[in-house]
């Protein structure tokens, strides 16, 4: 009973200051979350989706006679002519009654196109040859198929079926289970037509003859469109499985083609995409997969009948590492192949008509291949396919028909029934109708309305001129027909260009509200950092008691105001939802309350012992934040952060020479320069942004050397090659796994803290975990060897899975549980009647370092081999920075003592030396160096999706997304947050009561933790605010979604995860303080 009371008393003695500490930092985190949520809700909006569906009845087409004056461009006559054409045909008679649409996920254009043997990559090119062989006839069409970013499957399927453009933020729906298509699309139009032709109800669940097999994204997006019992979805996230989906596609697609009632068969293979994700684009495993696809293409072409259209296409491409999602040339460069048994009705006349209509951008270069290539935007497939199948073009379409498939020898441009002109006229009319409807919901395109109206009237006038001449097929009618076709095509192309430039919507009121809340959070954090310097006069309990009335009152008023405004929304227009009001009002008023308390605070001012460190920290932070004003500086942030950290460490090394003792004069420069060397070596590991070519050489993945000695793939990724890890780096990772525990023991031996708990942790948890982490990625590399048979590969796959699971259990459960329950790493050594407690002087720091070592071991498993090396070097640098910070605080203490001695001042109580802002800045910058060195950039395509499968063979929620987040932001936010806490606890001896002496004063550990935590979070908050501010400023810049939006998203996630990690680190420090109090009866305030 007494023991329980003692335990409760011990907990209570420590609880008060740490409850205030965690509460204050938690409040700051909530303010960050509120500001980011508000800004995001106004900035990353999705586009307006219009609900109408196109509908029309088949009409017999006759070229009408235009009103008098229309050919001369008279306004009233053009309006009348516009009305006449509006009543005309809205689709064409079907050229095909059936279609087979086969999507090979991540099928890049150069995988289909002919490539000279001297330039070919042996793993990528000239293996899928059936399409190019068929283009020698007039029955096929092969083109570069240009996707719109984001190049994620869900967004590409929307574009391929609706003809609409995506927005950047919609990429997240690909992984969240959202994204059902409610817009008009050619599949639903075709289904309605087939049901009507077969005399079935429009809500019938079967009978239309629509079937699907492959990627289950289709089943999520179009679940009600395919016939009951004729859909075979397969999981799309099991990248380890290269063959199951493709085998299912082969079986069911060929079976459906043999059915007499089949009308539309959609197949979506995943093997090529999975090879890319798993091994990289140019890898030996890609060869048999492309050959398998080639054989199946030939079988499909052989089984086609004269009434069936076959489309083979990629939804997007893949970069050299096999990934996609961004807008680099390789990611957007898919392939398109259209084939029919009956030749296209083109010929020489048709070719001339096509050349007359094609725009200047119809031929584009594609860097893996020489010359320019016929390029078709993906959304152009939608109106093309709709008219070929004889259904209305979807209402929201912005694509332009592909002229090659409508040009005709029998009805060329100039004849009244010219099929190409009819298609372009229907297409332009549909786009014009859509833009008129869109203008009723959004003013996005208003600045371009006059230009588009001029283009539309020009097309109407040229069409009227053609109509007057085309009745008799006079010689000049051909030129008039081509002019009209050109005008309609120019209108649709210009419309989509303007839509791309302004498609993202912005709610200015929410953007401003978010920026204001973020700015308020920065100011509050800065004041809390300043207030923590008064820890000797203002305990944490007193700080909490002082702040509580302001915060509680402000929050209550904010909630009341939010409720009042929510109720007033029915009477007064308020540009915020109820949830947004619930975030905005309390956040602003709480920030106002904190700043009011700061203004009224009359605590004595204390002159900073380190004014230069504070000024330097502010300067470095300002330079980093200001760099986002330039797209070039933002693109080269990896080099900038390394340069800033190098400048800080060199400055700290130089200051070390002025230390008051010889030991510190020697040790401090060595620590600073040693850290700089470690981080400079770590930074040699990198991936490159597309924009950094040719001035950046990637080194994160293994080099891909072609047999002729040349480096393969896009020059933007020169030397990068596939996403195959270097086996030599796996060997280095093994060495690191052995070295790190011994290095940590050596560091702890300086304070005699390497015994007991530390010995057990390093021997039985940290080292085995690191060895398993290295083994996991070695097995991953071996699994990709083309010399292994399938049995060996299956064995390695199981070995990987169990190794990953074992490591996760070891560090995530056993390691954390042991740390929570284990005693302090102390050893009592007796010498007769005397006893020495080894490890006492660093009992807090050593215990916390053990936890950070466990977190490092987890991140080590989730980092690929080159990243493991970089992460280990950065982790050692983090520990050395803690030692350097302790030395710098020793300098403050010694200097203060010398000043008091010189002044013969024996009454002044020494102030505790606190970590400086420059120390927090150093830790935050180290996080950015680690982020870039572990293979990341502020780009979508740099995300390392492979780590989602550590310990699993399929996507497993919530672990797979969590692993991806930890892989990217563990080095940036999580490990540095714990490192910032380590700064405070390192080499801090507990205050231990001694017999027959007055009790020692309580320790101000919580105040020091508040200072370091707020300094660290201030750095991330200012960067997030700067990224948001410049993203807003450049919101109409062409590079917005390539540069500033990804950087804002990176900064926002880094800040939120830094908040969470800091709260967890402070709770862990609370646990350490509880252990110290239990052993030494140390008091905290």
Automatic annotation (TrEMBL):
Protein localization: Endoplasmic reticulum membrane
Q: Name one GO cellular component term.
A: endoplasmic reticulum membrane
**Annotated metabolic or biological route of this protein:** Glycolipid biosynthesis; glycosylphosphatidylinositol-anchor biosynthesis
The protein's predominant localisation is endoplasmic reticulum
**What name does UniProt use for this protein?**
Mannose-ethanolamine phosphotransferase gpi13
Gene Ontology biological-process annotations: GPI anchor biosynthetic process
**Which InterPro entries does the protein's record reference?**
Alkaline_phosphatase_core_sf, Phosphodiest/P_Trfase, PIG-O_N, PIGO/GPI13
Q: Could you confirm whether the keyword Acetylation appears in this record?
A: no
Q: Which SUPFAM superfamilies match?
A: Alkaline phosphatase-like
GO terms (molecular function) for this protein are:
mannose-ethanolamine phosphotransferase activity
Question: Per UniProt, what is the membrane topology?
Answer: Multi-pass membrane protein
Q: What keywords would UniProt list here?
A: Endoplasmic reticulum, Glycoprotein, GPI-anchor biosynthesis, Membrane, Transferase, Transmembrane, Transmembrane helix
Q: Which residues cross the membrane?
A: 12-39, 511-531, 543-567, 579-599, 611-628, 640-658, 764-782, 802-828, 840-863, 869-885, 962-988, 1008-1031, 1052-1073
> Where does this protein come from, organism-wise?
Malassezia japonica
Sequence similarity: Belongs to the PIGG/PIGN/PIGO family. PIGO subfamily.
């Amino acid at each position: 009973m007494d023991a329980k009371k003692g335990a409760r008393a011990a907990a209570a003695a420590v609880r008060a200051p740490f409850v205030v500490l965690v509460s204050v930092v938690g409040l700051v985190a909530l303010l960050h979350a509120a500001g980011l949520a508000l800004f995001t809700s106004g900035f990353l909006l999705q586009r307006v989706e219009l609900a109408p569906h196109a509908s029309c009845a088949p009409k017999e087409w006759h070229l009408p006679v235009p009103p008098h004056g229309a050919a001369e461009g008279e306004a009233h006559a053009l309006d009348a002519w516009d009305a006449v054409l509006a009543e005309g045909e809205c689709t064409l008679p079907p050229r095909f009654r059936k279609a087979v649409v086969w999507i090979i996920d991540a099928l890049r254009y150069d995988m289909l196109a002919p490539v000279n043997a001297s330039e070919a990559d042996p793993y990528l090119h000239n293996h899928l040859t059936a399409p190019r062989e068929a283009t020698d006839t007039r029955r096929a069409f092969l083109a570069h198929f240009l996707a719109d970013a984001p190049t994620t499957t869900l967004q590409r399927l929307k574009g391929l079926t609706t003809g609409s453009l995506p927005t950047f933020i919609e990429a997240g729906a690909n992984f969240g289970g959202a994204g059902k298509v409610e817009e008009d699309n050619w599949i639903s139009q075709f289904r309605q037509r087939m049901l009507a032709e077969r005399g079935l109800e429009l809500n019938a669940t079967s009978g239309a003859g629509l079937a699907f097999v492959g990627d289950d994204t289709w089943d999520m997006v179009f679940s009600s469109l395919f016939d009951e019992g004729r859909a075979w979805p397969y999981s799309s996230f099991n990248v380890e499985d290269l063959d199951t989906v493709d085998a299912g596609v082969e079986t069911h697609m060929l079976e459906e083609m043999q059915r007499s009632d089949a009308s539309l068969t959609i197949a979506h293979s995943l093997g090529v995409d999975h090879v890319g994700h798993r091994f990289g684009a140019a890898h030996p495993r890609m060869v048999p997969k492309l050959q398998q696809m080639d054989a199946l293409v030939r079988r499909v072409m052989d089984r086609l009948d004269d009434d069936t259209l076959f489309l083979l296409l990629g939804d997007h491409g893949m970069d050299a590492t096999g990934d996609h999602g961004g807008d680099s040339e390789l990611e957007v460069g898919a392939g398109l192949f259209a084939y029919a048994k009956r030749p296209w009705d083109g010929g020489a006349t048709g070719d001339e008509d096509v050349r007359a209509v094609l725009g200047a951008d119809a031929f584009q270069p594609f860097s893996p291949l020489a010359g320019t290539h016929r390029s078709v935007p993906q959304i152009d497939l939608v109106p093309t396919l709709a008219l070929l199948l004889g259904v209305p073009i979807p209402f929201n379409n912005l694509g332009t028909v592909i002229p090659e498939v409508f040009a005709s020898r029998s009805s060329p441009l100039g004849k009244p029934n010219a099929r190409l002109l009819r298609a372009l006229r229907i297409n332009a009319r549909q786009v014009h109708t859509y833009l008129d409807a869109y203008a009723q919901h959004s003013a996005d395109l208003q600045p371009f309305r006059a230009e588009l109206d001029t283009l539309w009237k020009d097309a109407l006038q040229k069409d009227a001129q053609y109509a007057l001449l085309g009745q008799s097929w006079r010689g000049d009618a051909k030129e008039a027909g081509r002019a009209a076709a050109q005008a309609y095509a120019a209108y649709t192309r210009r419309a989509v260009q303007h839509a791309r430039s302004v498609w993202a919507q912005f709610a200015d009121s929410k953007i401003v509200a978010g920026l204001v809340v973020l700015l308020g959070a920065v100011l509050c954090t800065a004041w809390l950092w300043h207030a923590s310097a008064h820890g000797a006069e203002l305990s944490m309990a007193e700080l909490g008691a002082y702040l509580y009335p302001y915060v509680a009152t402000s929050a209550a008023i904010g909630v009341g105001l939010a409720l009042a405004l929510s109720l007033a929304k029915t009477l007064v227009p308020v540009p915020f939802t109820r949830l947004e009001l619930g975030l905005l009002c309390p956040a602003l008023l709480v920030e106002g309350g904190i700043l009011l308390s700061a203004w009224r605070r009359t605590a004595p001012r204390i002159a900073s012992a380190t004014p230069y460190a504070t000024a330097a920290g502010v300067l470095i932070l300002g330079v980093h934040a200001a760099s986002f004003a330039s797209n070039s500086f933002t693109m080269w942030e990896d080099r900038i952060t390394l340069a800033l950290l190098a400048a800080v460490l060199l400055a700290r090394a130089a200051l070390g020479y002025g230390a008051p003792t010889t030991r510190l004069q020697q040790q401090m420069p060595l620590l600073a320069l040693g850290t700089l060397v470690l981080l400079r070596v770590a930074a040699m590991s990198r991936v490159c942004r597309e924009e950094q070519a040719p001035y950046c050489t990637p080194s994160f993945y293994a080099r891909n050397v072609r047999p002729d000695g040349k480096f393969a793939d896009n020059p933007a990724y020169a030397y990068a090659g596939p996403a195959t890890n270097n086996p030599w780096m796996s060997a280095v990772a093994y060495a690191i796994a052995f070295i790190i525990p011994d290095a940590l023991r050596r560091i702890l031996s300086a304070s005699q803290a390497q015994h007991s708990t530390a010995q057990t942790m390093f021997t039985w948890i940290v080292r085995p975990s690191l060895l398993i982490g290295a083994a996991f990625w070695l097995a991953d590399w071996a699994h990709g060897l083309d010399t292994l048979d399938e049995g060996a590969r299956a064995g390695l796959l199981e070995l990987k899975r169990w190794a990953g699971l074992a490591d996760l259990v070891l560090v995530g459960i056993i390691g954390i549980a042991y740390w929570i329950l284990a005693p302090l790493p102390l050893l009592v050594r007796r010498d007769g009647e005397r006893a020495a407690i080894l490890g006492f002087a660093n009992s807090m720091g050593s215990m916390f370092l053990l936890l950070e070592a466990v977190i490092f071991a987890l991140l080590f498993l989730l980092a690929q081999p080159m990243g493991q090396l970089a992460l280990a070097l950065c982790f050692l640098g983090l520990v050395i920075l803690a030692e350097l910070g302790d030395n710098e605080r020793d300098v403050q203490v010694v200097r203060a003592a010398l000043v008091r001695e010189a002044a013969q001042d024996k009454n002044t109580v020494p102030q505790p030396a606190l970590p400086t802002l420059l120390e927090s800045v150093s830790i935050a910058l180290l996080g950015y160096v680690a982020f870039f060195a572990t293979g990341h950039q502020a780009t979508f395509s740099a995300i390392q999706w492979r780590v989602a499968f550590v310990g699993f063979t399929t996507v497993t929620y919530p672990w797979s997304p969590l692993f991806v987040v930890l892989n990217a932001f563990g080095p940036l936010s999580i490990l540095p947050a714990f490192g910032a806490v380590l700064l405070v606890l390192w080499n801090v001896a507990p205050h231990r009561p001694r017999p027959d002496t007055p009790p020692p004063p309580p320790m101000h550990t919580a105040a020091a933790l508040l200072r370091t935590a707020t300094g660290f979070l201030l750095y991330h908050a200012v960067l997030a605010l700067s990224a948001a501010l410049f993203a807003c400023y450049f919101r109409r810049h062409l590079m917005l979604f390539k540069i500033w939006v990804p950087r804002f998203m990176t900064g926002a996630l880094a800040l939120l995860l830094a908040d969470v990690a800091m709260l967890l680190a402070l709770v862990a420090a609370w646990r350490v303080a509880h252990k110290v109090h239990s052993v030494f009866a140390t008091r905290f305030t």
